[in-house]
Amino acid sequence: MNQTADCSQAPNLWSIAEIERDTGLGKDTLRIWERRYGFPTPLRDARGDRLYDQPQLQRLLRIKQLLDSGHRPGKVVPLSLPVLEAMLQASCAPADQSDASADLDDWLNLLEQGQPAQLRAALQQQLQQLGLSQAIEQLLVPLGHRIGQAWLADRLSIHQEHLFSETLQSVLREAIANLDASNGSSRPPRVLLTTLPQEQHTLGLLMAECYFALARCERVALGPRLPPSEILSAVEHFQVDIVALSISLHASVREIADQLALLRQQLPAEVGLWVGGAWASANRRRLPKGVLPVVNDAQVNTGLARWRAARG
Prior knowledge:
Blueprint: E1 13-15, H1 16-23, H2 27-37, E2 43-44, E3 50-53, H3 54-68, H4 73-76, H5 81-92, H6 99-102, H7 105-112, H8 116-130, H9 132-152, H10 158-183, E4 187-194, H11 203-214, E5 217-221, H12 228-238, E6 242-246, H13 253-266, E7 272-276, H14 278-282, E8 291-293, H15 297-310
Parallel strand pairs: 4-5, 4-6, 6-7, 7-8
Antiparallel strand pairs: 1-3, 2-3
Helix pairs in contact: 3-5, 8-9, 8-10, 10-11
Keywords: DNA-binding, Repressor, Transcription, Transcription regulation
Domain HTH merR-type: 13-70
Domain B12-binding: 188-312
């Protein structure tokens, strides 16, 4: 039985029309799935109209991605969000993985055994062998997903996940410092790196900084969760050329799209707005006009080459 929602206490609710707009799934399809698969399970407002919360929106977005890649509704609609995300990650994984990332369970074993020094040394070794950008894309991104899955499956504890995150951040910051020391002086564009206020994940932001460091860009790294008003103030204060945001997959599609549209409108026309992270990869068609998706090193370099060429 559907519950009646108190909209005053739950502002992050979507009507069926908004769900159709944000996911591309038709209203009739959603109603059929309710009866056939028991999902989605909308709330009802005082008039009896359907309302969907953010977890259901996120789950429907993943389902739509899997349907677009050829899966049948009966095989994916009943699945939980972690299982859907695992399927998406598996479908996006490169067919030709390096030996370093072929067995991610070896890395989980290091965490389970409580060996932070060995973990740090192993990460540093892979960065040296693969190079920074390839290590990020071939090893660190899939490893991060694998660790998230292991945590959801209760294989890893919270403190073990935190150990990985803190160790990796330390290793990446050291790599950036070494790059800056060896590259000498940086050159334009000047890039401001941050996240929007609701973004909890910081590793993606640090990986993005690695890409810009490799390209010898001037960088203003302000950490995560910067309010849009502060972004605008920092752009003026530091004379920024590009604002680069990292957004994780769990962010609300509608909320982020609206914030990006407003930020793009408020930024000076000559200042670029670039967005990376899993959200940008999954929601390219929902990006407002004038917002550039850059989700890997190649796309960052392409964008930078065009920016530099346009300015001589």
